[in-house]
Q: What sequence folds into this?
């Protein structure tokens, strides 16, 4: 039984259809990648699955709960790391996690241990008492992932988890995401437009284009479908999203992504 | 609400996700606890970096020292048998709480741009607890302002009321005033959504709110139309209550019951509206 499924999920903003009748499902324990150019509808999809944005039509269920009618229950079983920086720079790493341990109803007797375990797991123990604004970009991302794991979510949503990170920091975040899946069996849905990321982390990917799934399958299947030997996921991406001029990505999105990149860098 | 019962595999998670207890008593307790968590976050921030809050003391200090001293001397504003500096001290306390709280929405927009709001919205925290927690945070900042203004007032020889129940009343009024105006600000932020538009509206609102109140002159001096506006301005009730509680021999023109009633009802209404609008800020 899938732990996450959508049926004809649609979101319109006025005239624009950001997500167009999207149907897909993710099995428990999978790492599923939503790929696609800016404006393909990836973030809008994540926002609907995480109860931030009501769908215009269609259904989405997370761990069996409907995202509209059982939003409260969905919130208890998911973790979310937004694309932008969501850790609070004016608090310490420890405090960032502690606050959320309380918001997620983690019993008093377990809070301290869960927070310490999460920091340990993400390799942030030494920086626990430092203010987050003194962290590097990679450390901030790892802290955010630690926070999103505190309540042992069934599904973890990572919206462009390595945007703005240098290759070293990026690799470290990948290692941690991989370990997370291995240790806890967490189902992970991530968006990215770094094909190397999708290739190394994801069991299955869906390539989104203009709000629709243009192609879905394992990275291997997709490469085989597009070309023979030596086809990269980059080729697959371009094949399905067209090599016409970039159409997506509003000014607001672009400036937001750049701001995140600058702050992380 | 057991997940296993729904046939969803736990997929090797070492522990199932935690679902809250749903009886009414636990719900209320949980609500209050979460409201406090949001406010506690603010306390921790202030503790890490109190400079910004201390800088906010400069403006009320200038009002009391310069405006207050000058107008005391020329006796331009009739304040009965009360000295002008006594009359205006509670007004300046209300003003500094107002100015601190009215730009709270900027912080909301800033947090939205960063992604902080998204994370709180995705958590199972009830929306009213998020809004009320923010309001309480603004209130706690307001209390720091109050301490500073008490010190300034003392230095300027304002005759203060040190009665414990009066002090408790001042604390409550400051909390309510800050909660009201910060939630008002949050609502504006949810409607306009960008910093630029918010700054414009904030500037336009602040001064009229301040001048259409009894903060630095009695209502009796106002023309009729301004009296009407001041009567629907919650700041007027905040100042009136502070004037009666903060000063030795202070009296309330409107009655403390009405002052508290207006502030409590107005704040409750705004928190309700704010909780409905807050999720829209991330859309």
A:
């Amino acid at each position: 039984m899938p732990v996450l499924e959508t049926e004809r999920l649609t979101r319109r903003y006025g005239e624009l259809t950001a997500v167009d009748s999207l149907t897909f499902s993710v099995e428990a324990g999978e790492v599923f990648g939503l790929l696609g150019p800016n404006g393909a509808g990836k973030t809008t999809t994540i926002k609907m699955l995480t109860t931030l944005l009501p769908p215009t039509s269609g259904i989405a269920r997370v761990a069996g709960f409907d995202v509209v009618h059982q939003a409260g229950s969905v919130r208890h079983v998911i973790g979310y790391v937004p694309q932008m920086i969501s850790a609070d720079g004016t608090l310490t790493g420890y405090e960032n996690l502690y606050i959320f341990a309380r918001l997620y109803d983690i019993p008093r007797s377990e809070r301290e241990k869960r927070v310490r375990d999460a920091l340990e797991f993400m390799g942030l123990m030494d920086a626990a008492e430092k203010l987050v604004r003194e962290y590097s970009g990679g450390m901030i991302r790892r802290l955010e992932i630690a926070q999103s794991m505190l309540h042992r979510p069934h599904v973890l949503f990572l919206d462009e988890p390595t945007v703005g990170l240098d290759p070293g920091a990026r690799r470290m975040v990948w290692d941690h995401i991989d370990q997370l899946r291995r240790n806890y069996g967490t189902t992970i849905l991530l968006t990215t437009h770094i094909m190397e990321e999708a290739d190394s982390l994801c069991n299955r990917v869906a390539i989104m284009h203009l709000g629709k799934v243009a192609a879905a399958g394992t990275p291997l299947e997709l490469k085989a479908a597009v070309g023979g030997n030596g086809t990269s996921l980059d080729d697959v991406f371009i094949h399905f999203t067209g090599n016409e001029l970039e159409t997506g990505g509003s000014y607001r999105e672009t400036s937001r992504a750049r701001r995140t990149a600058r702050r992380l860098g | 609400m057991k997940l296993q019962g729904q046939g969803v595999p736990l997929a090797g998670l070492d522990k199932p996700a935690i679902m809250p207890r749903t009886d009414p008593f636990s719900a209320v307790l949980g609500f209050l606890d979460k409201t406090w968590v949001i406010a506690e976050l603010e306390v921790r921030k202030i503790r890490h970096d109190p400079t910004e809050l201390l800088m906010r003391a400069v403006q009320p200090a200038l009002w009391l020292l310069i405006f207050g001293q000058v107008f005391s001397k020329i006796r331009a504003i009739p304040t009965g048998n009360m000295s002008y500096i006594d009359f205006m001290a509670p007004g300046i306390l209300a003003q500094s709480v107002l100015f601190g709280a009215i730009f709270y929405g900027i912080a909301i927009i800033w947090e939205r741009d960063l992604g902080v709001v998204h994370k709180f919205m995705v958590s199972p925290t009830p929306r009213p607890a998020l809004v009320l927690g923010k309001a309480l945070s603004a209130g706690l900042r307001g209390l720091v302002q109050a301490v500073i203004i008490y010190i300034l007032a003392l230095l300027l020889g304002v005759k203060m009321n040190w009665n414990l129940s009066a002090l408790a009343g001042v604390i409550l009024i400051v909390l309510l005033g800050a909660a009201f105006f910060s939630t008002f600000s949050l609502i504006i932020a949810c409607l306009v959504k960008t910093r630029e538009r918010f700054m414009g509206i904030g500037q336009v609102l602040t001064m009229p709110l301040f001048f259409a109140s009894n903060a630095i002159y009695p209502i009796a001096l106002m023309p009729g139309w301004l009296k009407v506006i001041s009567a629907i301005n919650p700041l007027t009730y905040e100042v009136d209550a502070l004037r009666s509680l903060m000063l030795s021999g202070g009296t309330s023109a409107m009655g403390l019951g009405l002052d508290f009633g207006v502030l409590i009802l107005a704040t409750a209404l705004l928190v309700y509206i704010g909780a409905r609008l807050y999720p829209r800020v991330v859309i």
Summary: Residues 1-14 of chain B have pLDDT under 50 and may be disordered. Chain B has one domain: 30-282.
